[in-house]
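Hey, resending since the last one bounced:
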Amino acid sequence: MITQIYGIKGMQETLDCIEAGADYVGFVAGSGNFDFGITPLDELEEIFQAVGDTAVKVAIVGIASDTYEEIFDTMSVLSADIFHLTGKLETNAEFYEKFKGLYPGKKLMQAVAVVDDSAVEKAQEVEKYCDLIILDSVANDKEIGAAGITHDWNVSRKIVETVSVPVILAGGLGVDNVADAIKTVSPFGVDSLTRTNKNFDKTLGKDIEAVRKFCEIAHSFR
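The structure tokens again:
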């Protein structure tokens, strides 16, 4: 069971999260407006260079992009291991073919919103054009992710059982519920953003002890 930690702020916090057990470290790359902050590309690449191969480096791209070319421009300056696609644009056959041609050693992770059973069909549609799927929640009809709430794990379990790519479960996961989530869904990995932040606050950064405990619980399922 791998652990993915999002909402990290800066170099030292990244290194602290890795020391605490994070297998994947995730950031929102580029420019735009996002509640949990965007890391400028030059700063993010410095962090990625420092991380090296001590953790898998994940970058959300396209959250504020209007064209696929904007997404490729962002990818071109980052040494991420996984590019996480979310926002208005999602992967398709043409995009994925070009991605693999440009970045043959990289992986693409597509976000799927779990609102109802329609998420199963959506996951089956996009699995052909990505290497991983991340299942996340939606709050108040806003963008997928950073909602701080769980969704119907039974739907997520159906997706895990019916797609052929690895699935990371996200959406309101923390120390108090990650074990139950894993038992119910049996995903490839689990993701935490809000519930490993200090007091679940959007601006205060990570609670490293919460990250450590989250990772310890998830890793006990290996």
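The longest strand covers residues 107-113.

Sorry for the duplicate.
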